[in-house]
Amino acid sequence: MPDETVDTLVIGGGQAGLTMSHRLKQRGIAHLVLERGRIAERWRSERWDGLMFQFPNWSVRLPDFAFPHSDPDGFSDTAAIIAFIEDYAAFIAPPIRCGVAVTRLRHDAGGFLAEFAGGSIAARNVVIATGPYQRPLRPALLRDHPGLFQVDAAGYKNPAQLPDGAVLVVGAGASGAQIAEELMRAGRDVFLSVGRHNRLPRRYRGRDLIWWLAEMGIDRTPVEQRGPSRLLPVISGAHGGHTVDFRRFAAGGVTLLGRVTAARDGVLEIAPDLAANIANGDAYYATFLGIVDDFVAARGLDHPDDPLARLRLPDPPCLTAPLDAIDLRATRIRSVIWATGYGLDLNWIDIPVLDAAGAPRHRHGVSEVPGLYFLGLQWLSKMKSSFLSGVGDDAAVLADHIAGRG
């Protein structure tokens, strides 16, 4: 027998879970939110000290709640985002219990039963709002290498956390790029392994990238029109927000590498793909500039040309003559930061709703199991579904669906 029963249970107390609670309260639907740690726990414990949010302040918002700021075009640190989410929680006053980690979710008497240490809760509806960044993906290449400090991007805090010596950052997405730049500015010798990526401008023709995505309707692209690429854009809000340029990183002292493919006796084998990866990133960047140019011309908008955005630094030696291997001892690399992405961790859902890869089967957050929903995932219904400012639209649709179940 369950310890208690609720109409709708929301699992996860970050921005997605809180927004879901807000939408349910607006419709008078009784519910409870369970959070494994504290409100916005991943923002608190799985971000590094110097992280700057990648969205400009003017674009940060949650339903019926504006982000307070004095610099619309600036970028805020993690502490400001945590405070914003806490203030939002105070504003909506959700029925939430923190420190409750659900360990199993299963069917029960026509509904669902959520089990956790010390109890269980039955619910007619369940919304999984645990976010898209649950489990760091780390290759096993250096698993048994002695004397090497290794940490995932979620566990990296600051340069002082690392032992003396050079640092290898594996992965040049948004996190890897910003961490590599932070280490470079801290005076560390940095090696950056660059895989295939989608590079975009921070600003172009006087406007931020996020403004262009909204103005052109790209951020509302439905998931059905999503292209084959699953790469997230490489952008940064650090140091006032600037375009990530790996040639500029190299000019600052970073050694660029291709993908790390193998490790034997402290020697890493490097794929011969650095030039192709940089070229693909450049092509993606140039394509986006062209899309904006065509949009400006078609609409007759008053946004002056931006020739500086197309300037390219000379190719550095590490790009024209890339390394095919590096010896950790010879290069004095004593730390490795794995910025190799995240996967979902939903194995605690004991209901046949996950595919072979462990991802939920759903359409716009509505699963094929009546009463079971997902919120806050990347491309849940559209590009901006996982954006801080986009999750509210999906939450409203799910709340309407729950209300319609009677």
UniProtKB/TrEMBL annotation:
How is this protein named in the record?
NAD(P)-binding domain-containing protein
Using the record, list the residue span of the signal peptide; answer none if the entry has no such feature: none
- SUPFAM superfamilies attached here? FAD/NAD(P)-binding domain
Read off the InterPro entries from this record.
Answer: Auxin_biosynth/cation_transpt (IPR050982), FAD/NAD-bd_sf (IPR036188)
Arranged from A to Z, the UniProt key words for this protein are: Oxidoreductase
What Pfam families does the record tag this protein with? Pyr_redox_3
